[in-house]
Amino acid sequence: MVMDRQINTLQRVSETRAKLIDAARDILRRNDRGGYTVPTDALYPFQWNWDSAFCAMGFATFDIDRALTELEFLYSGQWASGLVPHIIFHRDADTYFPGPQVWGTHQTPPTSGISQPPVTASALAYILDMASTGPASLDPESDVMRRARALYEKILAYHHWWARERDPDGTGIVAILHPWESGSDNSPVWDEALGQVPATQTPFQRRDVTLVDSDMRPRQWEYDRYIYLVELYRALGWQGDRMWSETPFKVADVGLNAILMRDELDLIALADRFDDPANAQVLRARAARRRQGFDKLWSLERGLYLSRDLLRDRLVDVPSHASFLPLWAGTEPFDRAAALASELARWINLSRFGVPTIAPDTAEFDQRRYWRGPVWGIINWMISEGLRRHGFIKLADEIKGHTAALIQDSGFSEYFDPITGEGLGGGDFSWTAAVGLAWALD
Ligand code: DGY
């Protein structure tokens, strides 16, 4: 009898899981615009850089060809300098601001002029893992390996761009020149630095707040400065050296640096796989510099990583989810990893669902507003797998369990309220579906 009940429960769990997996695949297919995936309908009608890399990983769980196509479409927007822009405007849409005319980058296809956290080497490594049962089992002459090799060359150029244009002095840490480059647009981490940026004088009409409640989106104060920065860089002709010397916003985002570090380590593994020792050596030397660069972002007072405002040469004393992302890179010394894990456990105890993007016991915490409190699936994935890499298995499992529960209860939302679990922002969101397929529901 007890045994029957246990079997019934297991059957129900696996049926629920199978339904969620079908629903996640369906979202990726519905958000497919013929080779690239929009993050969600209307709110984000183009191809976004890091969204796409996560989508490619989601596709890789059931369609390797489509996964590679996602990255190929993304790289069709790569600039001659190596930059992979944060948005590729493959077609027109009037549900998003700022569109291609505001960016004025004169690229074909039209693109924005800034980047986003680089995840494409990690995505390509993931695709190849899914396509093979072991490193040797993919025939080098196969279509998959030929396409992967072509992508690898482009990803190399992208990483050289980060080093050249966002760390021209070779310090080991790269800077973002716009909060959008961090991917965590309105995080309180940027408040002080963004406060030094003037507001645009050009009137403009936001579209996001006509599609999603304004209490879930960045404030007008932030948008006025986001657009000022776009106009400034457009006036500088999107020339990297001029942007670097004339920007009023230059922050070494610890989250972006951690994700770049992980991507660079995955790129080194790809260089080895594609038998490219010369580039592998360059990348290894750079990764060693990057590793040291993290020391400039460690706060002894907090026992945590923080971002650094490079114009004011000081750490930004606002911990966020990004403070934990160095775990994702997988190279933390034990004492630092343990300090991060213990603070993370504290944050999770303060909320019903982890990981909140801002500590719930701080004045900045805003449980519904985009990157000022809500939980994001991709962030949970990176933090949880980072914990696992450093041996903190119980906490890693807890975060994974929270992510699966949020998806099961509230669907594949863009982000979630850490206190109530409510789904927020855009619905049927591609990267949340991808996170479900590639990680949370496996
Ligand atoms: C947005 O428009 O909200 C994006 O995050 C910026 O790229």
What does this structure look like?
It is a single chain. This protein has 442 residues and is mainly alpha-helical. The chain has 2 domains: 44-312, Glycosyltransferase (Alpha/alpha barrel); 332-442, no CATH class. Helix content is 51%, strand content 4%. The protein has 18 helices and 9 strands. Helix 3 (64-75) runs antiparallel to helix 5, helix 3 packs parallel to helix 6 (143-166) and helix 16 (377-389) packs antiparallel against helix 17 (393-410). It is globular.
Helix and strand topology:
Elements: H1 2-30, E1 47-48, H2 49-60, H3 64-75, E2 87-88, H4 100-103, H5 120-131, H6 143-166, H7 179-182, H8 191-194, H9 208-211, H10 220-235, H11 240-246, E3 251-252, H12 254-273, H13 277-293, E4 298-299, E5 304-305, E6 308-309, E7 314-315, H14 326-329, H15 334-349, H16 377-389, H17 393-410, E8 415-416, E9 423-424, H18 430-440
Antiparallel strand pairs: 1-2, 3-6, 4-5, 6-7, 8-9
Helix pairs in contact: 1-18, 2-3, 2-5, 2-18, 3-5, 3-6, 5-6, 5-12, 6-12, 12-13, 16-17, 17-18
The structure holds (2R)-2,3-dihydroxypropanoic acid.
